[in-house]
Design brief:
About 45% of the residues lie in helices and about 10% in strands. The protein has 23 helices and 14 strands.
Length: about 550
């Protein structure tokens, strides 16, 4: 390569690299929370409980719940956090004046250890109290009672029913079943003599089967599967023919029977037992508050309504499990994930953040209309839509590209006024919401209300670079006293709406991160590394340098 060619190649590559450096000078909004919200540790040893009770929790203001995700405890469906225990805990937290924070624990066996170490206040996971774990934690009153029941295959996988084909299809690493499925179903517990029953590791039903084995004077072979193998996954293995028998809570097993129609859920193998929440043994006030609340609410409609919703309503359960948007299983949030991924990069956002905003605006309904005239997936007002070249707000692609242009404008507006990326994001979101109610010049007015709050912060006290302080003064803009203050240029603002808007979007974004992976993106620094490697050793081309970096 001659000198002129080398200089030309270097100029071209610099033209690519420098804008990338500029674009990535600021951190991506995806880094709002550095700590992984899923606790992936496993097989943790039991530890003694830290000292923290209800009074300490109230001083912090947040009740932290440890739970795995599953089909009834806690999951995200069509962008919304749901679950029998989640909704109950949300109601309890509200009654105590607390925010609720969910921490997903990947290894259920480590749940009590993580609880005692103080990283949560309550453990929830369809927990069955047993003598083995009552020495480590305390259990609340029963949320409900159920029985242990045998789950067995009645028909081959081909008879499992419509919609189960993908779930039951073998994966590339799966081995063909080596067991023979019973020609005759087990109808009595005594018929389990000489049979093998597979359970998750540390299942409460191991003791149940041992006691049953003593009663029927015949051995029942219990196999515990290690790792993160929940009971629902074992039921699926029974449906596939990989496992002959397992034991589950009856109400949950009946849901799996409705999902996989080749299963048979019978017989009940022991008496009913309670399902409860766990707290640290030295948290008596929290325990007392939980038990009082459970007793009170069980006499009302809440428990019955939620039990019906999650355990009795088979139609909605099947809709959830057959949907492409049961996020904890599929990694999808909506039918518009690809569209949101495509445009989020234009504003250096994690696509899950843009998805959280889309859910807040329209619940992923592209035909949604607001009382104020906003429409579409990201609820653009007619004036804003015209400003950014949107011809049809009800067309998801048109709506999202226009909304992203608006967000880009807002980010540029706040760039010189708020230096911290994570804080500036909150100003951008609040401005988007404030402007959504105005027919014309929404971007200026929306940002103007938040700018007014920033000026009020400077005037009356607080840090105008920090959303927590500015949001207080944004709330005051709904009062006569402050909406007419000399520093306020844009007048009255319904401040509670944008303040809640920011909170809900960021909270939901953090929940989305628990269940949905961010698509891997080539780091811009790798391009720069390739360029400088190429400059040092002219024999290595930029293309080969990138290949050598593993990209």
């Amino acid at each position: 390569m001659n000198i002129r060619s080398a200089r030309l190649a270097a100029a071209i590559l610099l033209a690519i690299v420098i804008p990338i450096f500029a674009a990535c000078h600021r951190k991506a909004y995806a880094e709002l929370e550095q700590v992984d919200p899923i606790d992936r540790r496993s097989n943790l040893p039991m530890v003694g409980p830290i000292n923290r009770d209800l009074a300490d929790i109230k001083q912090i203001g947040t009740l932290t719940v440890l739970a795995p995700y599953n089909s009834t405890t806690y999951f995200i469906y069509r962008g919304e956090p749901l679950g029998y225990e989640y909704e109950l805990l949300q109601s309890f937290a509200k009654a105590q004046g607390l925010d609720l924070k969910m921490v997903v624990v990947a290894d259920s066996k480590s749940l009590f250890s993580i609880l005692n170490s103080g990283e949560g206040d309550i453990a929830a996971n369809r927990i069955v109290p047993t003598p083995d774990n009552e020495t480590d934690v305390s259990f609340t009153r029963a949320l409900y009672r159920t029985e242990p029941v045998l789950v067995q295959q009645e028909e081959p996988p081909a008879k499992a029913g419509k919609g189960t084909e993908k779930a039951l299809a073998p994966g590339p690493a799966d081995q063909l079943p080596e067991i023979d499925i019973q020609a005759r179903l087990i109808s009595k517990p005594a018929q389990l003599s000489g049979k093998t029953v597979t359970l998750p590791e540390q299942s409460p039903y191991t003791r149940t089967l041992i006691e049953l084995s003593d009663e029927i004077a015949g051995d029942i072979h219990v196999v515990e599967i290690g790792g993160q193998m929940p009971d629902e996954a074992l039921a699926e293995k029974v449906a596939k023919g990989e496992v002959q028998f397992t034991v589950m809570q009856k109400n949950l097993a009946e849901l799996k029977e409705a999902e996989f129609k080749n299963l048979k859920v019978r017989p009940i193998i022991s008496k009913s037992h309670s399902v409860a929440w766990a707290v640290r043994k030295n948290s008596p006030e929290l325990m007392k508050a939980l038990n009082s609340w459970i007793e009170e609410k069980q006499n009302g409609a809440l428990f019955d309504k939620l039990y019906q919703k999650y355990f009795i309503d088979r139609r909605n359960y099947l809709e959830r499990v057959e949907s492409g948007f049961l996020t904890s299983t599929t990694g999808k949030l909506s039918a518009y994930d690809d569209l949101l991924k495509q445009h989020a990069s234009e504003i250096n956002w994690d696509w899950r953040l843009l998805a959280s905003q889309a859910f807040q605006e329209s619940r992923f309904k592209p035909g949604a209309h607001s009382w104020a005239g906003a429409s579409g997936l990201l609820q653009l007002m007619p004036g804003t839509a015209r400003e950014y070249g949107v011809k049809n707000s009800l067309d998801p692609a048109d709506n999202v590209q226009g909304a992203v242009k608006f967000l880009k404008w807002l980010d540029n507006f706040w760039l010189e006024r708020v230096s911290n990326d994570a804080e500036r994001l909150k100003f951008v979101l609040a401005s988007y919401n404030c402007g959504a109610g105005h027919v014309r010049d929404a971007q200026r007015l929306g940002a103007g209300h938040v700018r007014d709050a920033q000026r009020l912060t400077d005037r009356y006290g607080g840090n105008s670079q920090v959303w927590e302080d500015v949001s207080y003064w944004l709330l005051q803009e709904s009062t006569q006293e402050y909406s007419t203050d000399p520093v306020v240029k844009f007048g009255f603002c319904r401040g509670l709406e944008p303040v809640n808007y920011v909170t809900h979007i960021l909270d939901r974004f953090n929940r989305y991160k628990q269940f949905v992976a961010r698509r891997p993106v080539t780091e811009p620094g790798d391009v720069a590394t390739a360029f400088f490697r190429w400059r040092r050793g002219r024999s290595i081309s930029p293309t080969r340098a990138l290949a050598g970096s593993g990209q």
